[in-house]
Design a protein that fits this description.
- The structure holds two protein chains of two kinds.
- Chain A has one domain.
- Chain A contains 14 helices and two strands, in the order H-E-E-H-H-H-H-H-H-H-H-H-H-H-H-H.
- In chain A, helix 2 packs across helix 7, helix 4 packs parallel to helix 9 and helix 4 crosses helix 10.
- Chain B folds into two domains: 218 residues, P-loop containing nucleotide triphosphate hydrolases (Rossmann fold), CATH 3.40.50; 97 residues, Alpha-Beta Plaits, CATH 3.30.70.
- Chain B contains twelve helices and 14 strands.
- In chain B, helix 6 links the parallel strand 6 and strand 7.
- Chain B is globular.
- Classes of the chains: A mainly alpha, B alpha/beta.
- Chains A and B meet through helix 2 and helix 6 of A and helix 2, strand 5 and helix 3 of B.
Chain lengths: 307, 326
């Protein structure tokens, strides 16, 4: 294993021309202008790559599409849920957000991330990127961070109409829970995006990556639960199996975290979670792990990619 | 210290042996031209130099460092891939600015540095246009621009003039000549235009079947196949060419004579070329003639073991049927 693969830093050895590699460039900043504003970031290579990816994603109008998609989604869910007749109107809103979010959010994240690396390769820009004086793993991490920033930011903006309607129909007191669900959805999107970037690093062709991404969506949003339910029912497995089934799917982690916010559901649901040994911190940590682990794997897999 | 030292490197992709015991040394400040047939291993060799590939066996040192060590080598080496592309939504200026950041050009110098490169590569006017609107030649120029960012020790350029128009090719030649004259940078580039290598390079290397088939100073390689020049003649028709062949065979100063349809090629010593031409022109109807000095083309063919002048490079396959060689 060579020093670069070990992640020994930007410049292994003492012979680098610029030992700081841009890290210690005093006062140097990285200008990020994607939406007309200017954001000053430190001039670290990983952030420079992230800023470039951010700019590209914003200009491709993907971000606008995600804002509109989630804007319509959140407004529709809150409008119909909050204005319905009967008790537990807000619980219905959160439950609907969670149940529909498990289809929409992973689809958006996978579609947004599947071409991150393989797309750059087919475009001819990956070789140039990887020939820059930054470890190749950090190029992957930077590309992910840039896309995650766009996806996360666009989702947050997209959920604003829903937040405004929540305050209007259900009062300010409901906003905290709404925001918690939205943040969990963003975290789930980042986790699924990380999986998409891993796929993008492993496959050789963009069309192949798209196929794998769609298969993953099918698995995470639909099939995993059916299979898990079948296994648990058939084997009469206990709480450990339920816990494993939840933790092995970032979409289920989101669903559990979102539904745990709902009072009506939380009673029985909380008991099931407790029996399975699941708690909000445990599931939250699992979702974080789903974010970090695929990127760590992708950062290593890039060295084995044939260029 | 040599800029590049490669020793007995092998690289295999599945069943394909891309490099097979390739060894090469390049002195600092040298402009080296690499040529060879398609699939000879040139691109694989270049990728090894920037650490984008790892050798299966053997050692590679660039500026004294192992490219497999990663960023330290890439700080010194600039690489222009054969099929370099850019994100279509960025402008040429933004791409160069990105490279200046990644290459640790001080923030206060970036704008000037980028401006200078844009002028050098002739893209100043198109700098703020998205790359999606660039032609293939403009893309190649931009790629060359990225290779000029910072203060490189070694430039590795994979077919930098492929797809360039004559103006772009001249711009590239000017850049290489200027770098070679004013800096100590080592330039390694591949090209199928052997005249380009003859014009720009101090040294040339022929890569064939994953090995160095021939390496040396360009002047030496040009003479490697002898000092004889080749006189190419196009006569009025095939009968005229056949008669001229007989005439030339009677001349002691003529070397080998070959005929393909109305075209003739005769080799001779440089000081005999004018006399032979005069003799043929006095007796036969010559439409066109050309005197070719010994060049890399002959060295290339000798190195890779292919025929060079029997049929002549501009002969069509159909013509070859009527050819003969003396």
């Amino acid at each position: 294993m060579n020093p670069e693969e070990r992640g020994d830093g930007e410049h292994p050895g003492a012979t680098a021309v610029e030992p700081d590699g841009g890290f210690a460039a005093a006062g140097a900043t990285n200008e990020l202008r994607a939406d007309g504003g200017a954001l000053r970031l430190p001039d670290w290579p990983v952030l420079t790559v992230a800023a470039r990816e951010y700019r590209l994603a914003v200009r491709s109008r993907w971000a606008l599409g995600v804002v509109l998609l989630f804007g319509l989604f959140s407004a529709a869910v809150v409008q119909f849920g909050a204005t319905s007749v009967g008790p537990g109107r807000f619980d219905a809103v959160v439950a609907t957000l969670a149940e529909l979010g498990v289809y929409l959010v992973p689809l958006a994240a996978l579609a947004f991330g599947y071409d991150t690396i393989v797309g750059a390769d087919e475009q001819g820009s990956l070789e140039l990127l990887l020939s820059l004086p930054v470890s190749q793993g950090r190029v992957v991490a930077g590309a992910y961070l840039g896309r995650a920033a766009v996806l996360g930011g666009a989702m947050l903006l997209g959920f604003v109409p829903g937040a405004l309607l929540t305050v209007r129909y259900l009062g300010l007191g409901s906003l905290g829970t709404y925001v918690a669900v939205v943040l969990t959805a963003v975290l789930m999107a980042c986790a699924v995006l990380a999986v998409a970037v891993l796929v993008s690093t492993l496959v050789a062709e963009k069309a192949h990556a798209l196929g794998v991404a769609l298969a993953l969506w099918l698995w995470m949003a639909l099939l995993h639960d059916l299979v898990a339910l079948g296994v648990v029912a058939t084997l009469d497995a206990g709480g450990t199996a339920v816990a494993a089934a939840v933790l092995l799917n970032p979409v289920d982690c989101f669903r559990v975290l979102a539904l745990s916010q709902v009072d009506v559901v939380a009673g029985g649901f909380g008991a099931v979670m407790a029996q399975a040994g699941l708690s909000v911190p445990v599931v939250g940590a699992a979702l974080l792990a789903w974010t970090v682990a695929p990127i760590a794997l992708a950062s290593r897999a890039i060295y084995r990619r044939r260029l | 210290m040599n800029a590049i030292d490669i020793e007995d490197v092998t690289k295999r992709y599945g069943d394909v042996q891309a490099l097979d015991g390739l060894s090469l040394s390049v002195e600092r400040g040298t402009t080296l031209g690499v040529f060879g047939t398609n699939g000879a291993g040139k691109t694989t060799l270049f990728k090894l130099l920037v650490g984008l590939n790892r050798p299966d066996d053997g050692t590679v040192r660039v500026a004294g460092l192992d490219p497999a060590d990663g960023p330290a080598v890439r700080e010194r080496v600039r690489y222009l891939p054969e099929h370099a592309g850019f994100p279509p939504n960025l402008t040429g200026r933004e791409i160069l600015r990105f490279h200046t950041r990644m290459r640790s050009v001080p923030a206060e110098k970036r704008a000037h540095h980028v401006e200078r490169i844009l002028h050098t590569i002739g893209l100043a006017e198109a700098a703020d246009r998205p790359v999606s609107g660039y032609s293939n030649g403009m893309n190649r120029r931009l790629g060359l621009g990225t290779a000029l960012v910072g203060d490189p020790s070694v430039l590795v350029l994979d077919e930098p003039t492929a797809g360039l128009d004559p103006e772009g090719i001249q711009a590239f030649h000017d850049i290489v000549e200027s770098l070679a004259a004013e800096t100590e940078v080592t330039i390694v580039f591949s090209s199928h235009a052997l005249s380009e290598i003859e014009q720009l390079c101090d040294e040339a290397v022929v890569v064939a079947d994953g090995r160095v088939a021939m390496q040396g100073p360009v002047e030496v390689l040009r003479r490697a196949t002898g000092d004889e020049v080749t006189v190419r003649l196009t006569l009025a028709d095939a009968d005229e060419a056949q008669a001229a062949t007989a005439t030339l065979r009677d001349e002691a100063s003529a070397g080998s004579v070959s005929r393909t349809g109305p075209r003739l090629e005769v080799t001779c010593r440089p000081d005999s070329a004018y006399d032979l031409l005069t003799i043929v022109q006095q007796r036969h109807a010559v439409d066109r003639f050309e005197v070719r000095e010994p060049g890399l083309e002959a060295a290339f063919h000798e190195a890779v073991g292919t025929a060079s002048t029997t049929s002549g490079p501009d002969a069509s396959p159909g013509d070859a049927a009527g050819g003969e060689t003396a």
